[in-house]
Amino acid sequence: MRTLLVIFAAVLVSQLGLAQGGRGRGGGRGPGEAPVPPAEPLKPGFECFAQAVTPEFPMAALQAKVDGTVYAFIQVTPQGTADKIDFQVASSWQDGQKLLTPPVEKALKASKYKPDCGGKTVAVVYRYSLYGEPVAAPKATTRTEGNIVFIESQPESKTGR
Question: Distance between CA 5 and CA 65 in Å, rounded?
Answer without folding.
Answer: 52
